[in-house]
Automatic annotation (TrEMBL):
Every Methyltransferase small domain range: 201-371
Compartments reported by the entry: Cytoplasm
Lineage: Bacteria, Pseudomonadati, Pseudomonadota, Gammaproteobacteria, Pseudomonadales
Coiled coil, from the record: none
Gene Ontology annotations for the cellular component aspect, listed alphabetically: cytoplasm
InterPro entries: DNA_methylase_N6_adenine_CS, RLMG, RlmG_N, RsmC/RlmG, SAM-dependent_MTases_sf, Small_mtfrase_dom
Entry keywords, A to Z: Cytoplasm, Methyltransferase, rRNA processing, S-adenosyl-L-methionine, Transferase
Name of the molecule in the record: Ribosomal RNA large subunit methyltransferase G
UniProt-listed Enzyme Commission number(s): 2.1.1.174
Species of origin: Pseudomonas mucidolens
Length: 374
């Protein structure tokens, strides 16, 4: 893989999850542009820099040792990638302060570097949280590849930070540069909430939760077909989002034990708050992480999963395939993985390569619900 060359460092970087023969690199021209722009300002070693949404640690790992850098984002995989890339380049894995997006970073900061996220709600929430966290005259610089940079990103910078201008495009990347100015105090519109009729619950959703405004149609197809009569089974909701699958299942299975996992810190935060609202103090494990990578082998009876089909702007089934493999490792012999997926994704044949038996539980014109038994 090519090295990232910048005025700050030359780094060998990997993505997370690590895949054999990975065709994609862990940085792009927008990372290079941001680092070059900052280097032109010749920041002092005491300069406090906040990096937001650094997909695989390219920015923070480059800046480590040159400025006082804090990295914050909503991806547990992104945090893992930063730690692995620090180690890979001869630095301490904890050399950069990491702050999950579910928490507020501790300013004041002299510069903020942002990789514009796919979800504009996340960007809006992050900009609102910068109130009171910026030194006078601070620049907030957002970067993205031009094809992934919506006009609304610049509008958000203008609204919450100050006057903004766009750079020229370099290698198909662009910077949006805003300078802190007086702005009226903003109240965050997040989290949002919506209600379900079956089960009769209200679901809270922090800014980066998938389908924040209402139940996604895949989950809606899945809910009527969740497994019944689970007794004291240990059930995992893999990629739990706001926790709706696990909560609906738990309401039907009062003796079952549940583990909810998602790589989004805001999803985990939402799921924890929703679980408590629906189920009170009932025992549960809810954690951020790399799927079931940290789950003990043969420790689960049932896995529920509505798998993702993209990582940031990269579309594909590699994350789903990895989740299926993790589920197989974590399930007891005879345990089952239940998934919902678009018909055209062909999950039945993929699951058949890993599991002893695969059956269709139900179907709609767009989705299939499958049960794969180990």
């Amino acid at each position: 893989m090519p090295l990232l060359h910048s005025p700050f460092a030359q780094l060998d970087l990997i993505r997370q999850p690590e895949l054999p023969n990975e065709p994609l690199q862990a940085f792009d021209a927008a990372d290079e542009y941001l680092l070059s722009y900052l280097a032109e300002q010749q920041p002092a070693s005491a300069t406090r820099v906040l990096v937001l949404n650094d997909s695989f640690g390219a920015l923070a790992a480059s800046l480590e040792g040159h400025v006082q850098v804090t990295s914050s984002g909503d991806s547990a995989l992104g945090a893992l990638a930063l730690q692995q890339n620090l180690l890979r380049n001869g630095k301490a894995f904890d050399a950069v302060a990491l702050v999950p997006a579910s928490q507020v970073s501790d300013g004041p900061f002299d510069r903020v570097l942002i990789r514009a996220p796919k979800t504009l709600a996340l960007l809006e929430e992050q900009l609102i949280r910068l109130q009171g966290q910026l030194a006078p005259g601070t620049e907030v610089i957002a970067a993205a590849m031009v094809k992934h940079l919506p006009r609304a990103a610049g509008e958000l910078l203008e609204r919450y930070i100050g006057p903004m201008h766009a750079s020229l495009a370099v290698k198909k990347a662009r910077l949006l540069i805003a300078t802190l100015a007086d702005r009226p105090p903003a109240v965050s519109p997040y989290p949002t909430r919506y209600r379900l009729d079956t089960p009769a619950i209200e679901l809270l959703n922090h800014a980066n939760v998938f389908c924040r405004e209402g139940l996604d149609i895949g989950t809606r197809a899945f809910l009527p077909h969740l497994p019944q009569n689970l007794g004291s089974a240990h059930v995992a909701d893999l990629g739990c989002g706001n926790g709706v699958l696990a909560i609906a299942s738990a309401l039907q299975n009062p003796e079952a034990r549940y583990t909810l996992v998602d790589e989004s810190y805001m999803a985990v935060q939402s799921a924890a708050e929703n679980w408590q609202a629906a189920l009170g103090e009932r025992a549960v494990t809810i954690r951020p992480g790399d799927g079931l990578a940290d789950q003990a082998p043969q420790s689960l009876d049932v896995v529920l999963c509505n798998p993702p089909f993209h990582q940031q702007q990269v579309v594909g089934d590699f994350l789903a395939w990895r989740m299926f493999q993790q589920a197989r490792e974590a399930l007891v012999v005879g345990g089952a993985l239940y998934i919902v997926g678009n018909r055209h994704l062909g999950y039945h044949s993929k699951l058949a390569r890993l599991f002893r038996g695969v059956e269709q539980v139900a179907a709609t014109p767009k989705f299939v619900i499958l049960k794969a038994r180990k």
